[in-house]
């Protein structure tokens, strides 16, 4: 029996590749996360959004979000009771700064088999269409891997500026969220987001969850068990942040991010060719 989702919601996720909106963290916790992000930028001179793959490990608060029962109950209904937190990223769009995200698939560089990752996009601020909230093409996760062009464009928030050309987005659906709410999407669904045209910064935290039977196809890597048991032991453990900000973990986070953009790690569509 599902914990919190109806069978209709589960069937919708299987068919369309996404669910939204759902209640996640309390707005007060989201507001406190904003203070942590400001403190990180003041201390390090860069935004935490520059950390590509495991940004949640910078902060005890965001690490704790990966254990939030309201989030994990939904994830469990989608991928089962044994869950690893694989990676994360803060998505930060400044007011009218022109940054955006092109059409892509999360699976392109993740190096996972099978493709059962669920992305939880957690709204640290409100996220509306005019703020550049996420948009998806329903059902696109049921197709094959797409080839991405790597542009490394400065205004593209993706690590390699990767883009899938020729996407017919007439059926795209926007996923607006209130502060503290979250959406879920399949790692292969086509998704993107427009620039933030408002006077307010838009911030989200993408948390990537996998069932424990998922393997890494590009060597042994790290993840943390957040629910259930891990009988497979395919992944080594990530470090656990000790306090509000954990500078000791930054080198680990940077190393993982550098590997993610290393050209020798080819995108899935190329590797399958």
Shape: globular
Total of DSSP H or I helical runs spanning 4+ residues:
6
Here the CATH topology equals Jelly Rolls
What structural class should be given to the helix and strand makeup?
A: alpha+beta
- The N- to C-terminal Cα distance equals 40 Å
Name its key features.
23% helix; alpha+beta; four-stranded antiparallel sheet; 25% strand; 273 residues; 15 strands; globular; single chain
Give me the secondary-structure topology:
Layout: H1 7-16, E1 18-23, H2 27-44, H3 60-65, H4 69-79, E2 83-93, E3 101-104, E4 112-113, E5 118-123, E6 134-136, E7 149-150, E8 162-163, E9 173-174, E10 181-186, E11 191-193, E12 202-211, E13 215-216, E14 222-227, E15 236-237, H5 250-261, H6 268-272
Parallel strand pairs: 14-15
Antiparallel strand pairs: 1-10, 2-12, 2-14, 3-11, 4-13, 5-10, 5-12, 6-9, 6-11, 7-8
């Amino acid at each position: 029996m599902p914990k919190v989702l109806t069978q209709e919601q589960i069937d919708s996720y299987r068919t369309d590749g996404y669910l939204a909106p759902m209640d996640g963290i309390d707005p007060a916790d989201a507001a406190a996360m904003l203070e942590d992000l400001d403190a990180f930028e003041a201390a390090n001179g860069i935004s935490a959004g520059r950390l590509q793959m495991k940004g949640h490990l910078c902060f005890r608060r965001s690490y704790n979000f990966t254990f939030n029962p309201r989030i994990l109950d939904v994830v469990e209904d989608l991928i089962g009771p044994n869950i690893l937190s694989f990676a994360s990223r803060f998505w930060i769009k400044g007011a009218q700064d022109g940054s955006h995200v092109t059409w892509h698939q999360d699976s392109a560089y993740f190096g996972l088999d099978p493709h059962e990752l669920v992305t939880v996009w957690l709204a640290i601020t409100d996220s509306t269409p005019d703020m550049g909230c996420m948009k998806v093409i329903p059902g696109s996760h049921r197709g094959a891997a797409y080839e991405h062009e790597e542009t490394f464009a400065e205004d593209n928030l993706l690590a390699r500026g990767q883009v899938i050309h020729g996407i017919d987005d007439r059926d795209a659906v926007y996923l607006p969220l209130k502060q503290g709410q979250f959406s879920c999407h399949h790692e292969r669904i086509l998704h993107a987001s427009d620039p933030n045209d408002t006077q307010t910064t838009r911030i989200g935290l993408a948390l990537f969850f996998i069932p424990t039977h998922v393997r890494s196809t590009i060597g042994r890597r790290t993840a943390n068990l957040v629910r259930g048991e891990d009988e497979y032991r395919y992944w080594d453990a990530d470090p656990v942040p000790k306090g509000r900000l954990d500078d000791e973990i930054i080198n680990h986070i940077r190393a993982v991010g550098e590997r993610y953009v290393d050209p020798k790690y080819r995108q899935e569509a190329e590797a399958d060719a």
